[in-house]
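Posting for a labmate who doesn't have an account.
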Amino acid sequence: MKRVLRRRACEWIAALLVSISVFPSVPSAEVAKGNVRIGVLTDLSGFASDAAGEGSIVAVRMAVEDFGGAVAGMPIEVVSADHQDKSEIGAEIAREWLDNQGVDVVVDVAVSPVALAVNEVVRERNKVLLATAPTTEELTGSACSPNTVHWTLDAWAVATATTRGLLKLGDDSWFFITGDHRVGLALERDARAAIEKSSGTVVGDVRTPFDYPDFSPAVLSAQGSHAKAIGLAVTGANIHNAIRQAAEHGVGSGGQALAGLATEITDVHAIGLKAAQGVYLAEPFYWNLSPETRDWSQRFATLHDSRMPTALQAGAYAATLHYLKALAVNRSDNGRRVVAAMKAMATNDPLFGPGSIRADGRALHPMYLFQVKRPEESKGAWDYYKLVETIPAQDAFRPIEAGGCPLVEGK
């Protein structure tokens, strides 16, 4: 009996050895297909197309070039698509990319509802999302995912940096003109919290529709409130209308501070310094901050119609570069493993400097409070900002314990 068992054991071992030689271990999908594919899913035709759009695609391609064009001998390819500001279109593109087109990582995803939809698709397929353009805090809160890194900015960061900075300047009473939508309401909510925490007051507010051309009644209400600061919690073309009409009604010359809580450098460019002068805004990047940002931005401008980069486009570059660094040391088609490697590595690039990624996926780096220059202060095209305050990385974003992310220990 023992002899029979030994014989069978030998047969099983022999069979196992044969199976190993005939069927070698299957490599990861990245190795099998021989390349790394990056999908830039952005707004190419809607209200976020100037701040993200083609510029984000340019920035990602620059990151690939600067990394050397390959990871461990695997060529890096960049594909792109327009989600048209629609969640269902963005989710469907992401599914097609991840299921059938060999895309490993999705970058950008401007417009918060689209980003939240794509976030779930990426989690289900265990790939990677580098959310470099949406403002929703949910990506590091209730919707946080082990597959997602939220780079650049969010509503809490821009609203809090702006209000805290102006409170330090003595502007302790506020009136809000707020878009009646997800981002606008989040901006006002976070700004209110910062004001109230510092013993400031909110004396009034007005809600406006998403597409709202006439801000004159809202501006007149804000002026009549005698608040020291007016917070514009509006987005897209509404920013342009609100700032222009505030200038027409003499808000700046009347002594009230005007804060654009969701204002990008492309908005200032479109509005012009004559109307935008004096506006306060918070951003995590400005092309003219340092020799490193200037050098990179000049390269970017030669590739993007002489336009300087926005913070969102800079974020697409930095996040992609860090992803490729992590992939080089942890080559895997398992998105959670790659994101874990990204979190384990300190971030460092010429645009945002040294930083880190928290357990909830929030990339940490400084924020800056700027004021838009007067026309006579500007030295040329795109020279629009003067620095008011630098907010250190550890203070720039919502505390991790306040977000409610299930990935955080104890949640």
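Reply:
Got it, the structure tokens are right above this. Confidence is low (pLDDT under 50) at residues 1-32.
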